[in-house]
Design a protein that fits this description.
homodimer; Dna Topoisomerase Vi A Subunit, Chain: A, domain 2; five-stranded mixed β-sheet; 8 helices; about 15% strand
């Protein structure tokens, strides 16, 4: 059976989402088709609103509804330590542990020659500028414990040698080859507590 | 961390979709946040269009862009046999096998006292009207091989005793307790070929 064209189009769009295969996309499309108009309207508005109302923090590149995110603007946070993460979802993972009270820096990627991510395309220059212009005493590297993450951690550690900052890395409580975003809170919390001094 | 409110709202809406848990919803929301405006616009339009442009076939209750679906209006289909399915996704599953060339009838559910689905809330009256007003010779029951599906099949078989139609059921090639929508094409195809006469 050739499906009605509007449904085919929606399945195709859903299929582009991460972890959504062809069959799940079809299931979601049929669910949306059966949903009432109120839900559809709310859903469409919710998608439209994230683009309209969410900004990127000018300091740490976290997401926020204001120019500077609530972590950077809070006076309860320890501004002498910056936790470097690959992505916004990693901030969420670390925040959930309640083991960390410093600031963040979102790199927006890790060094990966195969995916075309080089030194220029992740926010390393911005990190160095922050170190230069603030009283940061420690940089905590919280990248995924896989090849790209490890390489990037070592690269950053080397890069920061000339600055007067302690460079630490979250502990190997995380299973090697795993993914920070999906690790459980206890594991991520343990990893933050057991961070190891690199230099 | 409290996420920006527009993102929380979207995660909540995505979480309502079938088979999308909290973590997947968060992942999808962050993916959408990072997507370019063009994709977001296409996605929103695609969702809006299914409601606007897809109709329910007046004969078999399949989905279609016209009043009568392409299966019912095709003169290549065998109009002497109607395959009774629970849902539109089951039509897709049977059509994919290329083993069936008749018409369909979408019940829109199966008898399930626990979920409040009784004889009145599935399209049984409509099925009987179709049998009365056409030259149907065979009703092929293709409901899921679980308790509700089996009960509904037996109920329909009993209901159709007074009509001059053969009632068949797709073969138990399907794993019992499984789900028609997710069965592989070979299994569903075998089940259509091996249908068993009930009366």
């Amino acid at each position: 059976m050739i499906l009605p064209e509007p449904l085919e189009v929606l399945i195709e769009e859903l299929n582009k989402l991460p972890s959504i295969g062809k069959k799940t996309a079809q299931r979601l499309a049929l669910f949306l088709l059966r949903s009432d108009d109120e839900y559809i309207a709310k859903f469409i508005t919710a998608i439209g609103n994230i683009k309209k109302n969410i900004k990127i923090c000018t300091d740490c590149y976290n997401i926020s509804t204001s120019e500077v995110c609530e972590i950077c603007s809070s006076n309860k946070r320890d501004k002498s330590i910056i936790c470097v993460v690959e992505d916004i979802s990693d901030i969420i993972a670390v925040e959930k542990t309640n083991e960390y009270n410093g600031l963040y820096h979102v790199l927006g990627g890790v060094l990966s020659p195969l995916s075309g991510k080089d030194v220029e395309s992740i926010r390393l220059k911005e990190l160095i500028d922050r170190i230069r212009n603030s009283e940061v005493k420690e940089i905590l590297l919280a990248l995924n414990p896989d090849t790209e993450g490890e390489t990037t951690s070592l690269y950053i550690a080397k890069l920061l040698k000339e600055f007067n900052v302690k460079v630490t890395r979250i502990a190997r409580g995380l299973p090697v080859g795993g993914n920070l975003e999906f690790a459980d809170e206890a594991t991520v919390g343990r990893a933050v507590l057991n961070r190891i001094t690199l230099q």
